[in-house]
Give the backbone structure.
Amino acid sequence: MTAAAPESSIDLNITPYRPDLAAAHLRGRLAAERYAEGTAMCVTVPQTPMRGRADRDAPWTSELLMGEAFVAYERKNGWAWGQSAEDEYVGYVEDSGLDATAAAPTHRIGAVSALVYPAADLKREPIATLSYGARVAMLEETDKYARLAGGGWVARVALSPLDVLVPDYVATAERFLGTPYLWGGRTSAGLDCSGLVQIALMAAGHAAPRDSYLQEQAIGVPVASDEWGRLRRGDLVFFPGHVGIMTDGTALLHANATAMAVSRDPLAEVARRVAGPDGAGIGITSVRRIIGDNPVTQ
């Protein structure tokens, strides 16, 4: 019999495990009171927060966008506990924003944000706003608008086929300059440092975990510390609990709580700030560089 790993040895952010319930594929590896196969769901609202517990007062841990897939292992009291199929992040989302029978997405939002109208008429009052990367199913189209399976119409110019990538992830991230900083956020209404990096990389076809510590372990290849004085556009710079993208050899683009927004700052200034006024703290912890292809599986 395979011994069950102790709970302390696993990362609960990306492992669908609780002492009382775990994903069926963890049977024999982790001891739980019961196991569940999980139900494949799809997000049907513009966005829905993910939380660490089934409570609207609980802080956000992440955010799911319309059309993203979610595997629910428990649906109870208006909440679903499970795992994002996009980045394997685990948490609770409100069950009302999920549907197991939603139409499969055909397009994604390619604009920073796009308004959804009740009819193919820009003079009508919008009924929703979709953020960059949200996925939608198009049922029909006119010259300028597309009707969505979930209801409403969106401008065709804001849509991009699912298989069309945006290779320049730096340019994608720069489109979010000035966007408010939001802990756990992944939309044009607000995002955090790792959310910015993830959204930009995934649009380019690069798989990206949700949190900065996971990204530091998984994305690209490490750049030797003796090369940190010669960084390139697109390099990812990591600090304790923080990450940003180099836009050239000296400037870092990052969502940060100092500006409370996505800003572009001199890397040296950010490193000094993180290390503290006396320089006793830790500044840059690593730099990662993306080389070659790392396609996201649709």
Summary: Residues 169-289 form a domain with the endopeptidase fold (from Nostoc punctiforme) fold (CATH 3.90.1720.10). The helical segments are 169-174, 193-203, 212-218, 267-275. Confidence is low (pLDDT under 50) at residues 1-6, 294-298. The chain is about 10% helix and 35% strand.
